[in-house]
């Protein structure tokens, strides 16, 4: 289905170019306020290594008035701040023509530092690089955080790599969210946190 979706995306883009029609202003990758579910999101936390002790999950939260997803994270980092609690969805997108990723969200907890993690070309696991961008979640009220695709940089196990190829947004094959410990960051995070999410879209 992902390969078919990617082919269809490319066909649509080609038709738009031939007809001189502009891309829509936004494209929703996940809209949890409507029909998108959370069943295909996978946990990616530091327990993939023997020293890891963190936990993460994505749950759907709804009643008669609203519907959204909640990213729950419990971060138990090592003494140097190494640790992460995250989730990801393996899905193919061709985002050619779009310049930014936006997420409408709200954070709760002592810490509200998160990051979006993208991968491309089917290189979804180590030893390949991930492309990451950090953001501070808004508190109290929902707000939109805007992440330019040009600001997604290559990382390997939390360390920046300056010699990798740039992110290819025409072949996005994984999108993830993480609460980070901060091993290479000035702020070290630990403990529980939540990120309520209405939607994620490209603009």
From TrEMBL:
GO annotation, biological process: NADH dehydrogenase complex assembly
Coiled-coil regions listed: none
Ranges for domain NADH:ubiquinone oxidoreductase intermediate-associated protein: 30-197
Stored SUPFAM superfamilies: Galactose-binding domain-like
Domain of life: Eukaryota
GO molecular-function terms, A-Z: unfolded protein binding
Family from the record: Belongs to the CIA30 family.
Protein name, per record: NADH:ubiquinone oxidoreductase intermediate-associated protein 30 domain-containing protein
Source species of the chain: Papilio xuthus
């Amino acid at each position: 289905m992902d390969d078919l979706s990617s082919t269809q995306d490319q066909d649509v883009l080609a038709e738009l170019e031939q007809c001189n029609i502009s891309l829509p202003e936004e494209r929703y990758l996940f809209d949890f306020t409507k029909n998108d579910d959370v069943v295909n999101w996978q946990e990616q936390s530091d327990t993939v290594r023997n020293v890891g002790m963190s936990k993460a999950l994505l749950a759907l939260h709804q009643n008669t008035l609203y519907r959204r997803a909640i990213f729950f994270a419990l971060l138990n980092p090592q003494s140097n701040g190494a640790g992460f609690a995250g989730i990801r969805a393996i899905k193919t997108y061709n985002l050619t023509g779009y310049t930014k990723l936006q997420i409408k969200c709200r954070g709760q907890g002592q810490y509200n530092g998160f990051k979006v993690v993208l991968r491309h070309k089917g290189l979804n696991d180590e030893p390949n690089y991930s492309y990451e961008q950090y953001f501070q979640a808004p508190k109290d009220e929902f707000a939109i955080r805007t992440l330019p695709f040009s600001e997604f940089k290559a990382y390997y196990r939390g360390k920046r790599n300056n010699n990798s190829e740039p992110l290819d947004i025409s072949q996005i094959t994984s999108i993830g969210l993480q609460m980070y410990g901060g091993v290479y960051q000035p702020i070290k995070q630990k403990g529980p946190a939540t990120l309520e999410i209405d939607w994620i879209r490209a603009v």
